[in-house]
Amino acid sequence: METAHYKCESCEETLSERERLQMIGSGEWRATEDFNGKRGYYLNGLCSMFPAKKGFRNRLHQAVAGFLDAKKRGTEGIKTWTNTFMAEAWEDVHEEIQPHYLMARRETYTAEVPEGVCLLTAGVDVQADRLEAEVVGWGPGEESWSIEYRQFLGEPSHPGVWRNLDEWLQSRFETEGGRSLPIAGVCVDSGFQAHLVYEFVKPRQPRNVFAIKGMGGFGKPIVSRPSKSSVKRVHLYTIGTDTAKELLYGRLRIEDPGFGFCHFQIGQGYDEEWFKQLTSEKAVTETKRGVKTRAWVKKSGGARNEALDVRIYAYAALIILNPNLDKLAKDTQPKTDEERKPKRQRPPKGGGFVGSFRH
């Protein structure tokens, strides 16, 4: 990477960083369209004349390092790099994800919580005859592990359904190392039976149980600052569902464990129906009056989408908590023998009653 060069697409000559800067400095702006009173300019990161960031030999070195890091992050990383560095629009070629592709990746965990997980969150969806919920484990780089998917049958107006949910949300899950992790944060959708959701959430807000409401439209933040609902004065977070789906589907396409990769286990509610629900939608692009618009629609086949919604709510809980996953992972690693040794205490430097006593 440190010896990165630029290859001209016209003459295929290889240019050094010094030659790249000379070429840009001697360039000129030339209009490619008729002037209509406004000028627009287009440049990508390869035309930058700013010095490289600390740790990089030059801008070409930094550009190559950024691209390779983006590749490690999968589709999501390449998309961001294309938009920000190359200043080019990104268009997804594959808009759909097939459920059998994800099912084939299922794993057998050796504990309730596999190695790599340092935090748990949950999402809850309210339906007319049940509550649906999922616990998701998170590690550095927002790598995720499916932990458990549950249905709590019964009308939401029945207190027993919420009581069963609450008992489950207070469970602790055993890790491979023998620790037990609680659910650190929960998002409950208030789009249906909002007053019942507020009644449940209000006394549990100190436990990081949050009320949320989804909002469609691309470009919206995944989680917006909370407002207070007019009922029960509960803090209500707005979730940019289209943005979240775009991010999730990008991560579902990542094939190698690491940043953003999604692990799925065998059992614990993760059956064929669950995977159909997780992949039940697709993004479509339409052109209306010359303007491209994107929207999420259900695929043909009629699969419900609760699993997709619940996974997004669990991710929203992670965003609200905003934890330092790298630090949490480091803190939860087993200590070595050297780290277990008690630190040597230094004697106090004079001072105090004994130190100030004069013979």
Structure in words:
The structure is a single chain. By secondary structure, the protein is an alpha/beta fold. It folds into 2 domains: 6-26 and 42-84, no CATH class; 99-334, Nucleotidyltransferase, domain 5. Helices cover 30% and strands 21% of the residues. The chain is built from 12 helices and 14 strands. The protein has helices at 17-25, 59-72, 74-84, 99-103, 159-169, 194-201, 241-252, 272-278, 306-321, 325-332, 337-340, 352-355, and strands spanning 6-7, 14-15, 119-126, 130-138, 144-153, 172-174, 180-182, 185-189, 209-215, 227-228, 235-240, 262-263, 281-288, 291-298. The strands form 4 sheets. The protein has an 8-stranded mixed β-sheet. The protein has a two-stranded antiparallel ribbon with strand order 1-2. Strands 6-7 form a two-stranded antiparallel ribbon. Strand 4 (130-138) and strand 5 form a beta hairpin. Helix 2 (59-72) packs antiparallel against helix 3, helix 7 crosses helix 9 and helix 8 packs across helix 9 (306-321). Mean pLDDT is 86; it is low at 351-359.
Task: State the helix count.
Answer: 12
Task: Kindly report the spatial arrangement of strands forming the biggest sheet.
Answer: 10-11-9-8-3-4-5-12
User: Mind describing the biggest β-sheet?
Assistant: 8 strands, mixed
Structural class by SSE content = alpha/beta
Helix and strand run: EEHHHHEEEHEEEHEEEHEHEEHHHH
Tell the overall outline.
Answer: globular
Low-confidence stretches: 351-359
In what range is the share of β-strand residues?
15-25%
Rg of Cα set: 26 Å
CATH level 1 name of the largest domain: Alpha Beta
Overall pLDDT confidence: 86
Helix content: 25-40%
Number of strands: 14
**How many separate domains make up the residues?**
2
Architecture of the largest domain, CATH level 2? 2-Layer Sandwich
